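Review form for a predicted model. The reviewer records the input and the model, then writes brief findings.
Reviewer: anonymous (R2)
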Amino acid sequence: MAVTIRLSRQGAKKNPQYLVVAVDSNKKRDGAYLENLGHYYPKAKTAQEKVKVNQEAVQAWIAKGAQMSQTVGQLLKPTAAK
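Model under review:
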């Protein structure tokens, strides 16, 4: 089973909110996931409110062989520097 860390869309029309999830790569975008790792709110006013992720859980999944999607990699790059 190949695990991917990617976004799952939540929220209402024109008010997107995303979950950062660890999911089997064969599952649908908004299908069942293995673990919820955090949130991404693209319409938030400040950068701190936009991305809230459990870094320890992300690192644990990467250690187990999970691959990050390109979008999640770009989102988490600024938070990894902190």
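Findings: The two ends are 32 Å apart (CA to CA).
Further findings: Helices lie at 47-50, 55-63, 70-80.
Recommendation: see findings above.
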